[in-house]
Amino acid sequence: MNFQSSTKADFKVVGTRVARPDGVDKVTGRALYGADFNVPGMQVGLILRSPHAHALINSIDASEALALPGVKAVVTSADWGVPEDDGLRDVQDNCLARGKVLYDGHPVAAVAAKDMATAKAALKLIKVDYTPLPHVTDVDKAMKPDAPVVQEGRADESVPAGAGPNVTHYCEFGHGDLEAGFAKADTIVERSFTTAATHQGYIEPHACLASYGNDGKADLWCTTQGQYFVRDLCSAIMGMEGSQLKVTASEIGGGFGGKTTVFIEPVALALSRKCGRPVKIVMSRVDVFRATGPTVSSSIDVRIGMTKEGRITAADAKLRYQGGAFPCDTVDMGAQSAFAAYDLDAVRTEGWNAMTNRPRQAAYRAPGAPMAIYAVESVVDELCQKLDLDPLDVRLMNAADAGTKASYGVTFDQIGLKATLEAAKEHDHYHAPLGENQGRGLSCGFWFNFGGNTSVSLAINADGTVSVAEGNPDIGGSRASISMMAAEELGVPYEKVRTTISDTSALGQNDVTDGSRVTFAVGLATIKAARAAIQVMCGRAAKIWGIDEDAVIWEDGAAKPSGPNAGNFEPMTLAEIAAISSETGGPIAGHHEVNAEGAGVSFGVHLADVEVDPETGATEVLRYTVFQDAGKAVHPDYVEGQMQGGAAQGIGWALNEEYIYGEDGRLQNAGFLDYRIPVASDLPNIDTVILEIPNPGHPYGVRGVGETPIVPPLAALSNAVSRAVGIRLTSLPMSPPKILKAIMAKG
User: DSSP of 393-441, one letter per residue?
Assistant: First the structure.
């Protein structure tokens, strides 16, 4: 039997709602998060941050701080070399400014001291001489030729001649004849949109503990979405060999993409090396907002032509994204996503990334896609209104399907967009009546999903239990889903399997937990590792029975003869084979390492009902339903949680959340009192409808589900609010003052 290539369609464990393995630890406080690690002799680390949006650093004088009793070390960028690699240099310069500060909150120096009070006192004694420079925080202003220059010479080879000095990247996707397509249209709508930068809003701030030994080896404990990535970045910045730095991931109190890079970890290592003691750094909430990656803000133009029957004839979009003070290429993913839901003959998307005096952007669930699709889906909705067409029927008419050449060049395999649209059309939510000042919005959503480098080790223990080691932090229930797939494949109860997250010394390279890759890629590797162990166990049974290995099959957790010709032997269970493993050849294990491909793209459809108070502009979300293709829902509770969580974050993005900068370039709302994320009372019960259109790239048909749910809410809410007030709104967030202003302007 070819155990490696077989597929499975009938499940006993996968698809059930088993207990989560980390539940008891988390509700009792036993689970250890980033700030929970402590060791003897540990010093407190604090970081001094810039009060300017843009300024030259003329000098840093730490002599008074170092003279303070209890202060062990002070570090600046001078304690590191200057990497040749641009990307690594940007990470390093974001951790400690080199030459000039680029945004309000940019780290300048760091101190290690015996306690928090001493560290705070020491920060006040560090003298930094600045020369303030002109700044820019708006993307459209930053792209102008005469804009203040954030960094010189950072444009890559993609940027056309004549672009402004802050433009760092350009992209273009599409096919077909746009002008001919627009000539066929009965109606054309062209609109401009803006979206604000928003933060991932994770409850747990960044935290780490570094211990650098006299032997040149170091240990790092941190809250992260990828300990291997942290190891690679930190060892390079510190000038260490990767094998000399062991990184252990703590439990993680939320990340959503915001913990896929480093901010404080190299600083803690530098302080520990300098003072010879372990150093712990925990960011304050204000520092999290001022200096860790929010998503990009955007300015977008969209033009779409449609026939009176609802067929899209041509579509064009121009995306301008700012990603903070360092180059990024997030606009690529936005430009590729913009029209991915549609089967179009003529389409083009152009994108520009520009630097501003803001914190360096970080991923936030489907980075780049929500803004682009918000603009596109808003114009599609407006066309439906102008032509008096059903917005769901129009999307079904134009929906991408298997064989569609996507706007970004690929040809889709089996996808679930039409199935999600049809499910939405049949759902009672779509047909429920609306009252006065109420509106219903609809939006499609898309994400690519990733695979990537993955390494898994699975051990069959002598008592018949199973241990799985994988290298990706559990940020969405992966320990449960991985254990379920191992149990499914091996034919043992879920309770017999325990999955643990390994440090960087225990397994081969594992890519970051992002892009909705883990259930797909780690699940695939786990299944293959289980099949490798099954192969060994079948071989052990064949040896005991004295028959060929090919004459043994694995069914229901046991080795069995493949048929009457193979012999009349009683099945040997996994537990029985494991119990005598030392007598039949030694320990039994399965390993699998892969750079996984075939993740399969993901689509979803969201419906939102709102009521807008015409006297205040306040919006109440009355009803919300998410439809999404999960390929195969390994653990439906977790899938529903991902769908609901993305919708909740998208609702906040659409209605309230935004970074607000003053004329001085400083962030004005660096805290949850002024940066308002949705709380339970702001949200309705978010209903979910899981569809399962198998992904042919996975043995169980799994697709990632975590990114897509944040993509449709921006447009779904905007379309609902626009219909409720009778005005097309084009700027997010749609806060009460903005809505009230639009209502009053309408008269």
Answer: HHHHHHB--TT-B-TTS-B--S--HHHHHHHHHHSHHHH----TTEEEE
Query: pLDDT tens-digit profile of 516-549?
Result: 999 999 999 999 999 999 999 999 999 999 999 9
> Tell me, what's the pLDDT at 4?
54
708, 706, 207, 710: which is closest to 475 by C-alpha?
Answer: 706
Mean pLDDT computed over 150-161: 97
Question: Are 417 and 441 in the same domain?
Answer: yes
Residue pair 674/662 in contact (Cβ under 8 Å)? The answer is no
Determine contact, residues 293/312, Cβ cutoff 8 Å: no
Task: For residue 166, tell me if it sits in a domain.
Answer: no
Tell me, yes or no, whether 485 and 439 share the same domain.
no
Please report where in the chains the tokens 């900068």 appear, as a residue. Answer: 661
* 60-72 pLDDT per residue, tens: 999 999 999 999 9
Q: Which residues contact 27 (CB under 8 A, 6 or more apart)?
A: none
The answer to whether residue 1 scores a pLDDT higher than 70 is no
Query: Total structural domains in the chain?
Result: 3
Q: Name residue, tokens 């289980």.
A: 530
Residue 323 CB coordination number (10 Å): 30
What is the per-residue DSSP string for 675-714? S----GGG---EEEEEE----TTSTT-----SSGGGSSHH
Q: How many CB atoms within 10 Å of residue 453?
A: 18
Q: What are phi and psi of 209, to 5 degrees?
A: -135, 120
Q: How far apart are CA 710 and CA 645, in angstroms?
A: 8
Whole domain around residue 69: which residue ranges?
Answer: 43-133+205-252+259-290
Residues 456 and 445 reside in one and the same domain? no
The backbone region for 29, taken as left when phi is positive above 0, alpha when psi lies in -120 to 50, beta otherwise, is left
In a domain, 191, yes or no: no
> Counting beta carbons within 10 angstroms of the beta carbon of residue 70, is it exposed (0 to 12), middle (13 to 18) or buried (19 or more)?
middle
Q: Is the pLDDT of residue 679 over 50?
A: yes
Phi (first) and psi of residue 547, to 5 degrees: -125, 170
Q: What distance in Å separates the CA atoms of residue 133 and residue 106, rounded to the nearest whole number?
A: 14
Residues 216/238, Cβ–Cβ less than 8 Å: no
What does the block give as tokens for 539?
């071989």
| Across 36-59, average pLDDT | 98
Reported as a single tens digit per residue, the pLDDT across 665-678 is: 999 999 999 999 99
- Does pTM surpass 0.70? yes
Tally the C-alpha atoms within 13 A of residue 473's C-alpha that lie toward its C-beta.
Answer: 30
Minimal CA–CA distance to 375: which of 355, 349, 401?
A: 349
Q: How far apart are CA 419 and CA 436, in angstroms?
A: 31
In this structure, are 571 and 491 located in the same domain? yes
The amino acid at 102: L
